UniProtKB/TrEMBL annotation:
This is EAL domain-containing protein. It comes from Evansella tamaricis. The lineage of its organism: Bacteria, Bacillati, Bacillota, Bacilli, Bacillales. Residues 24-275 form the EAL domain. It comes from the Bacteria.
């Protein structure tokens, strides 16, 4: 039997898989040089107040400008960075550079803008996080309400006893927090009441399915109602059509982000929007 499973295991090594393991190893090596080699860049995606139509914040989204492979999406390297631990340094780089960009926009006298940053579990549970954030904001002379940190349900569920402590400490220094991609993970509404978070970002799968299934509208509305009772600010992700935006306008949803409003743009393009 051992012989048989051994044979089966061997069969798993198709050319395709062999290639992908090689590619993974190679990407891993290349990613180490990407930070020092200035190959990462940030895009910014506007988040608007649905009722006034005004810009409220931007989400910083990382891109890898690879010298030979071209622009690589974070969905292709963030999981690998998490596996190898490089995410730690990447998140730090994003935090610093996105906040620095925001400080520059503030210096130039543009309207106050909250910068939203995605944090991996590694950074969220980093004992130095709160201290580092506080130090960075003071160095840049940025008020804490200019920063929101986004974490997924998966992250917040990892070490539940520490989660509340970290969120409470972030709240103490005045930084806002978002539960990102809400509805894709545990989607348990009951654990929400124990989490001292500021915002709930409804995952784009709910928004894109709004009119595909008649039951989705009421589900989304129920989430909004509950969230508003818990004093959570709701942000809808992935708004791609005017119909979706109109639906959100009629409900308790206050903020929206998505292709219909604006795709992620470069810092220069963002500055043009600010002007
Ligand atoms: P996320 O935090 O949920 O970010 C939203 C993603 O949805 C972005 O993908 C954005 O480009 C995309 N998106 C926005 N509007 C629409 C829309 O209307 N339709 C569709 N189909 N997509 C839309 P992106 O930039 O590829 O990022 C993917 C994920 O990678 C992010 O999901 C986040 O989890 C992660 N990520 C991105 N930047 C960072 C970072 O700096 N640090 C960490 N740790 N993770 C990051
Ligand atoms: Mg996000
Ligand atoms: Mg999200
Ligand atoms: Mg998402």
């Amino acid at each position: 039997n051992a012989k048989k499973s051994g044979k089966n295991n061997f069969q798993l090594f198709t050319t395709e898989l062999y290639d992908s393991i090689l590619l993974k190893k190679q990407l891993e090596q290349e990613m180490k040089f990407a930070l020092s080699g200035n190959q990462f860049t940030l895009c910014y995606q506007p988040i608007i107040d649905i009722h006034s139509g005004e810009l409220s914040s931007v989400e910083a989204l990382i891109r890898w400008n690879h010298p030979t492979r071209g622009l690589i999406s974070p969905i292709h390297f963030i999981p690998l960075a998490e596996e190898t631990g490089l995410i730690y340094a990447i998140d730090e780089w994003v935090l610093e550079n996105a906040c620095r960009q925001n400080a520059i926009w503030k210096e130039k006298g543009y309207q106050p803008l909250t910068m939203s940053i995605n944090l991996s579990a590694r950074q969220f549970y980093n004992k130095e996080l709160v201290h580092n954030v506080e130090k960075l904001l003071s160095e840049l002379d940025l008020p804490p309400e200019f920063l929101t940190l986004e974490m997924t349900e998966g992250t917040l569920m990892q070490h539940t006893s520490d989660t509340v402590q970290v969120l409470t400490n972030l709240k103490k220094i005045g930084v806002k927090t978002s539960l990102d991609d809400f509805g894709t993970g545990y989607s348990s509404l009951s654990y929400l009441k124990n989490l001292p978070i500021t915002n709930l970002k409804i995952d784009r799968s709910f928004i894109s399915d709004l009119f595909l299934d008649r039951r989705n509208g009421p589900i989304v509305e129920a989430i909004f109602t509950l969230a508003s009772h818990l004093d959570l600010t709701i942000i809808a992700e992935g708004v791609e059509t005017v119909e979706q935006l109109e639906f959100l306008k009629k409900t308790n949803c206050k903020f929206a982000q998505g292709g219909f409003i604006s795709s992620p743009v470069t810092a220069e393009e963002m500055e043009a929007i600010l002007k």
